[in-house]
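Tutorial sheet, problem 5. The two components below are modelled jointly, 649 residues in total.
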Amino acid sequence: MKKIEAIIQPFRLEPVKEALHAISVKGMTVTEVKGFGVQKGLREVYRGMEYQVDFLPKVKIEIVAADDKVQTIVDTIISKARTGRIGDGKIFIYPVAEVIRIRTGETGDAAV
Amino acid sequence: MSSKRVTAIYLLAFILVLLCAPLAAAAAEEAPPAAAAAAAPAVTDAPDAGGATTGSVKDVTAKEAGKPTLAELMDAVGHNKISINIVWTLITGYLVMFMQLGFALVETGFTRAKNAAHTMLMNFMVYVIGMLGFWICGFAFMFGGVGQVANLGMLANLGNEVTINLFGKDFGLIGYKGFFLAGGSYDVSIFTLFLFQMVFMDTTATIPTGAMAERWKFSAFCVYGFFISMLIYPIYGNWVWGGGWLSTLGANFGLGHGAVDFAGSGVVHMVGGVTALAGAIVLGPRIGKYKKDGTPNAIPGHHIPMGIAGALILAFGWFGFNPGSTLAGTDLRIGVIAVNTMLASAGGALSAMIYMWLRFGKPDPTMAVNGLLAGLVAITAPCAFVNAPAAVLIGLIAGILVVLSVLFIDGVLKIDDPVGAISVHGTCGAWGVLSLGLFADGTYGDKWNNVEGTVKGLFYGDASQFVAQFINVIVNFVFVFVAAYLTFKLLEVVIGNRVSAEVELGGLDIPETGVLAYPDFALLKGKREDTANGELG
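Model answer (structure tokens):
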């Protein structure tokens, strides 16, 4: 089992979610986050004074899936989240030691 | 069938029955009751759907019903005129009261979420505290010597003014009748005047809360509320509106019509703006407002839509503020005043927006809002005395002026005014008073302040009116600044004006009011927001 953590542009969340539904991803966790990457925030002007927006809003999607599903999910996310411009985000993949469904106590792939 | 749907069908049936009931009732009324119309032919009980016949001679109060004498008729005419004026003054006063909400939304929207309950509470309580202060003595000091206000048909006489005699002329300093609205002030016209003037005073009182937001101790604010409503506002107000010495500069020294300020660019707005200036100086800037080298940081407001909603509420309330200041719905100049008011606001918002766009690349919404308010503040003094092109021009100039003033106060004077209150109300209030002395076109204001002829500005042949306006601005600034500065310094010694750095960084809501404005939001504490210097100031 792997955990896929994708940080994407907030306005791409809907298309990504729809596409993941279409390939029968069973669950995901979404968090509104802020951060910076290569682009290093923005400079803006408020009432005539420049200011730096250090952290830009992003959406973090977390999905845990069986090993053989990971590549499809990653490809799907990339296909829908990519705009080709700076700020599209990143995907991180982690190994998962165990998954337990709280309601039934099932573990492993059955609990995903 | 689901139970929800059954309920909906019952409701629909009930409504249909209700709709049928009036039809049935109308059918029942078709048959006239026997011998009802025989007694008095003049009186009919036929309904008046068109509205043309309601209100007739039978409604004139007369000893012999339906046949008033000439004297009774004249009484009715006079009573009607004063009734229109009093109803007009009350309703426009209610509109001005609603401006409290406008101020609350602008000030809270343009400041940070962590202080929103505190900023809102100041705007709320200033209404309450100011009202009581004005009731105790503010009204008496301001209007106790104004005499009988003719437009309100006043029978009681607010005739007690303290005067001193200089150069053989009387200088009115302060009134002293109407304390607690008791005794001889228990009068419909005086109560009406009180309501209208109270909401004006509260406009002044709520202006400094914007410039002093996000760092002012709530207890000090409460005491301030009494000072401004009982002393600072009423004393200067007496000099211009209560028959005091600035209003008699014309009658005494031939300076135009004396200080003329139709609805209060000076009396209301400049007093608020100058008080805000003194307060912001005594308080000092918010932590993080200035970098080590002294250049200002931007501290964006947390809710721009709230600020814009507030600005539109203020613009709506201004239709009470300016036209209401005739104190007379029978003075049809109100049409001109209302149009001048809206034209100037448009001029101000447009020029401020375009200026920001050209200079900084984007049409900053907070400056567009300040521009709208700047236009409104500026037209408040001259609104009754100028024509439409002048009103637009006064607004356009105010919109540029407010932006330059904000940049100057923030960047050069290094006084931190989160919402631009000093610039909107102080700078543009002064501009409004002066603009009357330039653009008054002589179509209105005959016998204003007991001077023969209409009010004319410099461009219409009366330079002395501009001199009177100029003196008014100087006196306003000096008196209000000194009085407000002393008030805040006194508060500094007795209570302390400023919250601790810890409270300021964490937000004033919990320590000062015990409750968060937005408890369900996790506030991301950005580096920019709180510790731009990386230290506690």
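Marking note: The two ends of chain B are 68 Å apart (CA to CA). Full credit if you identified this.
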